[in-house]
Every structure is written in structure tokens, then in C-alpha cells.
Design goal:
- The chain has ten helices and eleven strands.
- By secondary structure, it is of the alpha+beta class.
- The protein folds into four domains: 2-69; 78-117, no CATH class; 133-220, SH3 type barrels; 226-293.
- Helix 5 (78-92) packs antiparallel against helix 6.
- The longest helix has 17 residues, at 26-42.
Length: 295
């Protein structure tokens, strides 16, 4: 944003003064700057480089031209505008509040004033509105170890090297190397109950080259389910009835349609002769084999 907003080429020192995050020793700041340039270029953003002085070509300036950066959106559907508006709201609620507000103003000019879509899974509750975001961003950007108090089954103090931060189904998740357990762990940001404490100077660790944050979020994906159809005796199997769709058969039996996960076998066996599984066929066969093995 700094390189796009300027009308002239900025020197490194000017960039270090204007852009947040460039702190620490000169060597560390230089490495951060080179990494940031590589990240921008990897996104397809063209950085113009030009000598600041015709007599000293090693003193260069940097700038991003609007014509090189501008995205030609063309005609946008109401649905596309809604998604862009949602992204801008997320952006506005974090570090880049001014830029997020500007993006929303531009979307309003295009007609994207409201979110009319149902995005599901609590996305619009925007649990991402966390005061911890700037500290986490600083730690990840500058490779600084951090510590915090975390509430899961128990409340504990955690020390990690933060690798990445991402929004997953409406909530922010932090992924990093747990320095005590020596394993990569996933932390739900809303369960962090303290401020973020910096435990090291910048460049304290290196993120593995093969690290992909998506690989560590797979464990948060919903468990795959299977559709089951079964007969249940009238007045029984209440826990299944509350989670499925029930229709009458006769005075003795009802039929229930329900989706169950990997532990379906244990759940169905619990009801004994009050439940008769009908579909799917392969699950019926598996259930029969289990029952025969118990005889």
C-alpha cells in the first residue's frame, strides 16, 4: 500500500520508516524487506525499481504503479459483491482499518452495500474481531516466538513459534510449533485468554519450506457421515429420533433416516433389538458380521 500510494520512488529507509513491522537490527530488517518483495512478486505484483541518483545507481527507489496493480473487475454479480464486501469487513476489523473502510466505500459505489447471502457456519458473526490480531501478525511477520494462556480442556501456558494465521469457518486459527511439545499445533484464537507476550527478538526461527497451513487444518474438517435408514420400535431410541427424520410404519415400528459418523456401529448396537438397520446394504452386512462374531 505504501508503494502504491506514493507519487515518487521511495528509498529503503523511507519504506522502513513508513511501513509497520520493520524493527530490529539492520541485517534482520533487510532480510524482511527482501522476503516481502519476493512475496509481492509471487502474487504477480510488479515493483518498479529506479536509481535515486543518476551518479549512484546503488541507491535505488521502489514504487508500484497503479496501472500495473489495478485489477479490472468488470461487471460483478450481487453474489460476487457480497463476498468482496465480506472480505473488506474482515480486513477493516483487523490491522488495515483505514484501507478496509476505503475498500467498503468503493464497493458501495459499485452497489455492494449489504451482505445478502447466507454464508453459513457462523461466518457473519465474525469471531475474527480479536484484539490479539496485531500482535499475532507482528509475531508471524517478524518470526518472533510468543507465549500466551490457552483454554481448551485445561488452562495452560503455551510457548510457540507462530507459522501462520488463517480464517476457517468464521474463526481465526493460529498454527505454529509448540516449543514444549516439539510438534506443530493448532490454536483457536478465541481460546487465547491473555495478551500475546513476545519471547524473542525478530528472526528467532525459520518456517519450514514445506509448511502449508491447510495441511494442519484438515483435522478441523467435519467428520464424514453416512446416511442410514433403520426401523426403530415405537417409544424407543429417543437419542436417534432427536437427530434424524422419523416416519411411521405401523403400530410397532417407526422408520428413521439419520446421518452418522465413523462410530456408527457403536451407536446402533447400543439399541439392541429395538433397532433394525435397513440401509446402506454394505453397513448392514458389516453389522451382521459383528453380531455373528459375538455369538
Amino acid at each position: 500500500m505504501a508503494l502504491l500510494a506514493t507519487r515518487r520512488f521511495l528509498s529503503k529507509d523511507e519504506i522502513f520508516e513508513r511501513v509497520a513491522g520493520y524493527t530490529g537490527k539492520r541485517d534482520a530488517v533487510e532480510r524482511m524487506f527482501e522476503r516481502d518483495k519476493d512475496d509481492l512478486r509471487a502474487l504477480g505484483i510488479i515493483i518498479q525499481v529506479k536509481p535515486q541518483d543518476i551518479f549512484f545507481e546503488d541507491e535505488v527507489g521502489y514504487r508500484i504503479l497503479e496501472d500495473d496493480y489495478e485489477l479490472k473487475l468488470g461487471e460483478l454479480t450481487p453474489s460476487e459483491l457480497s463476498y468482496l464486501s465480506l472480505a473488506a469487513k474482515i480486513w477493516r476489523n483487523q490491522l488495515f482499518s483505514q484501507s478496509g473502510d476505503l475498500a467498503l466505500q468503493k464497493l458501495e459505489a459499485l452497489g455492494g452495500t449489504a451482505l445478502t447471502e447466507d454464508f453459513g457456519h457462523g461466518t457473519l458473526s465474525l469471531e475474527n474481531e480479536t484484539p490479539l490480531f496485531p500482535s499475532l501478525w507482528e509475531a508471524i511477520s517478524n518470526l518472533r516466538n510468543i507465549s500466551f494462556t490457552y483454554r481448551s480442556r485445561n488452562v495452560s501456558q503455551r510457548r510457540i513459534s507462530p507459522y501462520g494465521l488463517t480464517l476457517w469457518k468464521g474463526s481465526w486459527y493460529l498454527v505454529g510449533l509448540d516449543l514444549e511439545k516439539k510438534e506443530i499445533r493448532v490454536f483457536k484464537v478465541s481460546r487465547i485468554t491473555s495478551d500475546i507476550k513476545f519471547e524473542s527478538k525478530p528472526e528467532a526461527f525459520a518456517i519450514p519450506e514445506d509448511f502449508r497451513i491447510e495441511d494442519h487444518l484438515l483435522m478441523l474438517a467435519p467428520e464424514p457421515t453416512t446416511r442410514f435408514l433403520a426401523r426403530v420400535r415405537v417409544g424407543t431410541c429417543q437419542s436417534l429420533r432427536s437427530r434424524g427424520r422419523v416416519s411411521g410404519v405401523d403400530g410397532e415400528w417407526d422408520r428413521i433416516e439419520i446421518s452418522l459418523g465413523n462410530n456408527w456401529l457403536e451407536q446402533l448396537l447400543w439399541f439392541g433389538p429395538d433397532l433394525v438397520l435397513e440401509e446402506p446394504h454394505e453397513k448392514v452386512q458389516e453389522l451382521v458380521q459383528v453380531l455373528r462374531s459375538k455369538l
